[in-house]
Amino acid sequence: MFSYYLKIAWISIIRHWGLSLLMICAIGLGIGAAMTTVTVNYLMSSDPIPHKSKQLYNVQLDSWDVNDPFNDGLSPPTQMTFTDSTNLMKAKKAFRQNVQSQASGVIESNDPEILPMSVNGRANSADFFTMFDVPFIYGSGWSHLADENKELVIVLNKETNDKLFGGENSVGKSLRLDGNMFKVIGVIDQWEPKPRFYDISTGAFNDSEDFFVPFNLIAEEKIGRSGNTNCWKPVGDGYAAFLASECVWTQFWVELKTEQDKQDYLAFLNAYVEEQKEFGRFARPLDNRLSNVMQWLEDQEVVADDAKMMMAMSFMFLIVCLLNTVGLLLAKFLGKAPEIGLRQALGASKSTLFSQYIIESACIGLAGGLLGIALAYLGLKGVESLYGDYMQGLASLDSTMMMFALVLSLVSTILSGLYPTWRACNIQPAQQLKSQ
Amino acid sequence: MLVMKNINKIFQTADIQTHALRDFNLTVNEGDFLSVTGPSGSGKTTFLNIAGLLETYTNGEFTLDGEDVGKLNDNGRSRMRNQKIGFIFQSFNLIPDLNLFDNVDVPLRYRGFDAKERKRRIEENLERVGLASRMKHLPSQLSGGQQQRVAIARALATDPRFLLADEPTGNLDSEMAQGVMSLLEEINQQGTTIIMVTHDAILAERASRTIQVKDGRVSELEIFTQQAIA
């Protein structure tokens, strides 16, 4: 009977194309608006490294002013001082650990035809690449020894390698960065985790870096540091004073395999802070935190409130569209009262008619869903053009979202069709047959 | 066999009670061609709707082929309508969106016949009413008489034991009406029990038995059979 119901639904939709089109448009608009905002929210709140997000922890230490706590005392600073991050690195208490900061510089190619380029990069530890599963096309990241020896090595992203070396294997070649000669040891493939969880201080949805160099080169002033810096205490004169200051500007991540490892590491952090208190630092009560990737993104409210508000509003719009659809379906089904009465006379039970009209609703919902996907695609393109690079990668419909759109459309239309269908099935056949 | 004993039907609105049928008693035997006459508002159509299980009755006993209709739920009533009863209406009641083939197909779908059997029955019955060549036409492309013939083909497609006809010639000119009546007589002669509501006394006389309904009751004095007269 299912194929029969489909056939009847198709005939009904075609014969009453005007009404059907109105319903499909109403559902399509609602689904399109909802899916545009849901997709943005979904991508904003998705797990950027699902297979190990529960093993990667951002480390926070509360080194802030006792009289003017960071974030009103609700949470410790989101970044760490150079002193603490280098101390934690030296302790090597985690399975893997990474200290990092945003960096920037000017790259000069050995090829005189290629103009110098201003680039954004990252100064990080050797473990960065293995911790965050960074994919390589050529070569690899550097070793711990290279970190310790402050070697002038560099990893390029694909785009930079394409610009500088025409996409060829550049491992072993050299280039000049901020006046220093660096040796290329690796080229990473396209890698754009969204959100860019490992450093949200400079924008959770910014592009990935053009290059990566050892973090220790910052202290040597071989590479320029950039990114956010927050201080609560006056900084002395000179770069050494800045590095020794209470300013926070580094991010610190550890990889811990088990819950026990996490507890052990937290105990180590507490012991470290207690030790630092003896030197007159960390005047505030103990508040050291280890947040895994998803906790970190949630704590930092990566999904902005206005995005959530937009999503809520778009769902309200969807509800308005569905209420319109209820009215249109009611008009359509009650307009078919004589046919319904006749079908009852010819042997259709209420459950049979219910199935038939629910399937017709579902067909309209499916068509509305497809239109909604097309409108959502256009909506996301609009969002992308409105917000530019910020929304790059966030404004795209993946297969999960498309399926979600279709299921949402089907379910909501079937729900909308319940009342009209129920009314239609309770039509008294005798009256309708006489009135036809 | 259709048996109604002391059937009452009361239509109730907020303020008014209307007795459409009062202690309605009737037995229709297998093979009967019963015509039901009576003035407008006498309860003829209500009787036919109850007989066709399209409407419930307030109280009384109603058995159809030995089955107590009052005990049937919606599915049971639908099944009985589909298996035992065929309907012909004054205004034909064809589904305008479906062609003749699909119109006749409707009750067969609900019966659950396979595609081959459905096709056989549709073609056979459209052939029987002389419209096999027009099975892809829409009802709007046919004359009134032809539409009624399609309705008859649809009613016969499931091989019903009872054919209920409500003013089947009411919307037809006299020539078409004669054609439809001849078809009904032919169907009756082949064993189908027919109950026909009509205002037309001449057509009513062509039935093997006639009753008159007045004020919701069978008017006993006017019950006769052609055989008895003969």
Helix and strand succession of chain A?
Answer: HHEEHEEHEHEHEEEHEHEHEHHHHHH
User: How much is the radius of gyration of chain B in Å?
Assistant: 18 Å
Strand segment tally of chain B: 11
Q: Would you tell me the structural class of the helices and strands of chain A? A: alpha+beta
According to CATH, what is the topology of chain B?
Rossmann fold
Gap between N and C termini of chain B? 24 Å
Unreliable stretches covering 5 or more consecutive residues of chain A:
none
Give descriptors for this structure.
heterodimer; A: 436 residues; alpha+beta; six-stranded mixed beta barrel; 12 strands; B: 230 residues; alpha/beta; Rossmann fold; four-stranded antiparallel β-sheet; 8 helices; 36% helix; globular; disordered C terminus
Give me the secondary-structure topology.
The complex is a heterodimer of chains A (436) and B (230).
Chain A: H1 2-15, H2 17-44, E1 56-60, E2 80-81, H3 82-91, E3 96-108, E4 117-124, H4 127-131, E5 136-139, H5 144-148, E6 153-157, H6 158-165, E7 174-177, E8 180-188, E9 211-214, H7 216-219, E10 224-225, H8 239-243, E11 248-255, H9 259-277, E12 289-292, H10 293-299, H11 305-335, H12 337-345, H13 350-387, H14 399-425, H15 429-435
Helix pairs in contact in A: 1-2, 1-13, 2-11, 2-13, 2-14, 11-14, 12-15, 13-14
Chain B: E1 2-12, E2 17-28, E3 33-37, H1 44-51, E4 59-64, E5 67-68, H2 74-84, E6 85-88, H3 100-111, H4 115-128, H5 144-156, E7 162-166, H6 174-189, E8 193-197, H7 201-205, E9 209-214, E10 217-218, E11 224-225, H8 226-229
Parallel strand pairs in B: 3-8, 3-9, 6-7, 7-8
Antiparallel strand pairs in B: 1-2, 1-4, 4-5, 9-10, 9-11
